[in-house]
Design goal:
It is a single chain. With 120 residues, this protein is an alpha+beta fold. It has 2 domains: 73 residues, no CATH class; 45 residues. It is 62% helix and 15% strand. It has 5 helices and 2 strands. A two-stranded antiparallel ribbon has the order 1-2. The two termini are 33 Å apart. The mean pLDDT is 87.
Length: 120
């Protein structure tokens, strides 16, 4: 989401006028209107969002490591496998049941994990 925000930052245009003269004779002084991107403001916004994105990514990496350590600490290998498939790999309960096999149903595995979390 933060990456998308960085990509979607509107470039703020700024307008100004400058004095100059015509490039050919009679070299009459005139005012020109110019318009461009305010890079100072744009860069400030991008850098702020990039810092926020970096902090969030570091938090998520820590959370993933903590989650993996928790899963690895589960003694029951079947529960460990079910939780990894469902919550790390993001499989649906039906996909978890198909992966585990052995006649296990999606509902049966879901209830088994639910009981595990209630007990622990």
């Amino acid at each position: 989401m933060l990456k998308k925000q960085i990509e979607d930052i509107e470039t703020i245009t700024t307008k100004d006028s400058v004095k100059g003269s015509l490039s050919e004779h009679p070299y009459i002084e005139t005012h020109f209107k110019i318009e461009g991107i305010d890079y100072k403001d744009y860069n400030r916004k991008v850098k702020r969002l990039q810092r926020k994105l970096q902090r969030r990514m570091e938090e998520l990496i820590d959370l993933v490591e903590e989650t993996n350590e928790y899963i690895e600490s589960i003694e029951d290998s079947l529960i460990r496998q079910i939780i990894a498939l469902r919550y790390v790999n993001g499989l649906t309960w039906d996909q978890v049941a198909a992966s585990i096999g052995g006649g296990n149903t999606a509902e049966g595995l879901r209830k088994r994990v639910q009981r595990f979390f209630q007990e622990n």
